[in-house]
Amino acid sequence: MEIDLGKVLDTLMVWVTQYSVKLVAAILIIIIGRWISRRISRLLGRLLEKNNVDITLVRFMENLTYYALIVVVLIAAVGQLGINTTSFLTIVGAAGLAIGLALKDSLSNFAAGVMLILFRPFQMGDFVDAGGVTGTVQGITMFNTILNTPDNQQVIIPNVVEDATRPRQSPRIAIRRLRGAPRLTTSGCSRLRAQASELAHVLATDPRRV
């Protein structure tokens, strides 16, 4: 059986020409799409900053906008290559579901962080009681909240715990009253008596007394 090399070469050249153009077009779509996505996300960030939006929410919206646009760009590039985008989206959706199940705890913290940033039940500098920990809010990230306790310890609480326990917010005041019964040991009572006796002696012998 003879093979017509000329026909094979012609078919190969047509295939290379056709798909090389599509490949170049897909690469250009990705490059230009990334540039446009970055510009749009940064523009959105600047607009939010001008409106005095919380910086954590600004960064979150920038990243969310950027990656959402990147997904659109990738779908457009895949479609340019002639691949069925419906099948591609099905594969991406299945992979996303598997990743979501594997990272459900982290995603729960992420979702709770979004709710905390959007609805702002408290903010940095507030004194709150959440998750069994009382302290001053030092930072709110997408996954956890950082508290400084009254004994100057830093505690990191997952946002899902903080969101579920409904934090109790206290006013921003410098002085707070602590409730509790004092506990004195035997040695403490002895020192207290000695100090009281010394104070009484000083008062009795001080010539300036009236």
Bulk shape: rod-shaped
**N- to C-terminal separation?**
132 Å
SS elements, strand count: 5
The secondary structure category is alpha+beta
Helical percentage: 55-70%
Report the order of strands and helices. Answer: HHHHEEEEHEH
Please tell me how large the radius of gyration is.
33 Å
Return the CATH topology of the domain at 5-81: Helix Hairpins
- Characterize the main sheet: 5 strands, antiparallel
Poorly predicted runs are none
Output the CATH class name of the domain at 5-81. Answer: Mainly Alpha
- Strand coverage percent: 5-15%
- In CATH, the architecture of the domain at 5-81 is Orthogonal Bundle
State the strand order across the main sheet: 4-3-2-1-5
Explain what the structure shows.
- The protein is α+β, with helices and mostly antiparallel strands.
- Among the domains are: 5-81, Helix Hairpins, CATH 1.10.287.1260; 117-170, Roll (SH3 type barrels).
- It is 63% helix and 12% strand.
- The chain has helices spanning 5-50, 55-80, 85-102, 104-119, 159-164, 186-205, and strands at 127-130, 133-140, 144-148, 154-158, 168-170.
- The protein has a five-stranded antiparallel sheet.
- α1 (5-50) runs antiparallel to α2.
- It starts with a helix and ends in a 5-residue tail after the last helix.
- The relative contact order is 0.07.
